[in-house]
Write a structure and sequence with these properties.
The protein is of the alpha/beta class. Helices cover 38% and strands 16% of the residues. Bound molecules: S-adenosylmethionine (SAM).
């Protein structure tokens, strides 16, 4: 997948291009990241990238021309059919399904705003969709773009090995993940559940599914309301709730 970043602070993206799962995906060529900085398209000696808002008021907006040219350069780098996403607190909220859908795109252009944001006409002309990472306001779109890159990259074929499958993660199957345990078998006086030491794969599968169902019911009942359940899942959830009561 190609990802072109439009940002005044390209250095920030080293956090995803150099480290961990995303850094590995970049090194393996599964994700190609390019940068397009509006500051490179300024024409004045101060390399100005902000401008005053019409109507007055506090704060500045991103200057139209450098931003528009940076987006054009990102399109030239990725191809015209790349989806242009403006990170914005006013956009559709990113969730698991959205990350999966975006992972099927060939190319994404992620536009990170700064200051009070971007001229509305530029959004209308250049942006395919606005995406928010939550109901709060960040100082810039870079962190939000990195959240998109990480959540989308995890969904790309070949990025996670079998041992670290995204299919087992929270939300993948409409459930939260089950609890996990590692060595030692006893820690702070608490033992690892016996079933996980049994070596019986079927029992372990059922235990994990039961914990995932119970945990989802307790923490995110809204997820279960919109999910159809198999007979086994209904049985395991009932068992979990009986054991807890
Ligand atoms: C200070 S914010 C501008 C907020 C804008 N005045 C508003 O209230 O809608 C600057 C930039 O941060 C980014 N940003 C802030 N919060 C975000 C969020 N929740 N999700 C995605 N991007 C966000 C956007 O790119 C935005 O242009």
């Amino acid at each position: 997948m190609q990802i072109a970043l439009v940002s005044l602070f390209p250095e920030m993206f080293e956090a995803v291009s150099e480290f961990g799962v995303t850094g590995r995906a970049v090194k393996q060529g599964l994700v190609q990241i390019s940068h397009s900085n509006p500051r490179d398209y300024t024409t004045d000696k101060h390399r100005t990238v902000d401008d005053r808002p019409f109507g007055g008021g506090p704060g500045m907006l991103m200057k139209i021309n450098p931003l528009q040219q940076a987006i054009a350069a990102a399109k030239a780098a990725t191809g015209e059919e790349a989806k242009v996403i403006y990170l914005s607190p006013q956009g559709q909220r990113l969730d698991h399904n959205k990350a999966v859908a975006l992972s099927r795109e060939r190319a994404l252009i992620l536009v990170a705003g700064r200051y009070e944001g971007v001229d509305e006409r530029l959004i209308e002309a250049e942006v395919d969709e606005e995406l928010s990472i939550g109901d709060y306001v960040l100082s810039g779109g870079e962190l939000a773009a990195m959240v998109v890159i990480d959540s989308v990259t995890r969904q790309l074929p070949g990025v996670l090995g079998h041992e670290d499958s995204a299919q087992e993660d929270s939300y993948a199957d409409g459930l939260l993940d089950c609890p996990h345990y590692t060595r030692p078998e006893e820690y702070l006086g608490k033992r690892v559940p016996d079933v996980l030491l049994s070596g019986n794969h079927e029992l372990i599968r059922r235990w994990r599914l039961k914990q995932a169902l119970g945990r989802t019911q307790e923490r995110r009942p809204d997820l279960l309301q919109s999910r159809s359940m198999t007979a086994e899942e209904n049985e395991l959830l009932a068992e979990y709730l009986r054991e807890r009561s």
